[in-house]
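User: Hey, my collaborator sent me this sequence without any context and asked if I could get a structure. I don't really work with proteins. Can you help?
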Amino acid sequence: MAEEIVNKVAQSALVQIDLEDYYEEGARKSIDLKDWLYEGLILREKDFRESVKSHDWEQYENAFVSIHCSTDAIIPLWASMVLTAALQPFAKRVVFGTQEELEALLYEDAFAKVDFEAYAGKPMIIKGCSNKPVPVQAFVSFTQRAQPYVRSVMFGEACSTVPVYKMKRK
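Assistant: No problem. I've predicted the 3D structure and written it out in C-alpha cell form, which is a compact way to encode the shape of the chain:
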C-alpha cells in the first residue's frame, strides 16, 4: 500500500509571495527627450512646443510611460512637464526615469494596497524567479514593508531558501 504524500509547506503557516502577482498589466512605452532636441542636445522652445503639438499622443493610450534623456543635455524642468501634460489624457501613468524606475513605481503603487498586518507573526518566502519584469527595488520595498509584521523573511523557493530577516525574540 502506497503512503500518501503530504505537502508540509502547504500545511504550514509559511506565506509564499510571488511579486509577479503584483505586476500591473499594460503596455510600457518610453520617450527619450534627446529625440525632441536640436541635434540631440539643445532644446529650442518653439520647435519643442511645435513637436509636442503635432505628435501622435494616441499611441500612448492606456500605456505606462517613462520619460528620460539618454544624452547629457541640460533640459529645463518644464519640458518633462509639457510632455506629461500632453500624455495625461492618454497614458495610465507617466514617470520621469528609466523603464526600470517605472516598474519600481508601479510595484510601489501595488504594495501600497497590501494589508501587511495579515502576515503578522508568520514566516514569509519571497519567490525569486518570475516571468515578468520585477526590479530589484520591488524586492527591497516589499521586504521593508513586510519586515515590521512578519516573523521571518526568506528568499527563494520553499525547498531552497536564503534567510533575509528573522524577528528578534523579546
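In plain terms: The longest strand covers residues 160-166. You can pass these C-alpha cells on to your collaborator as they are.
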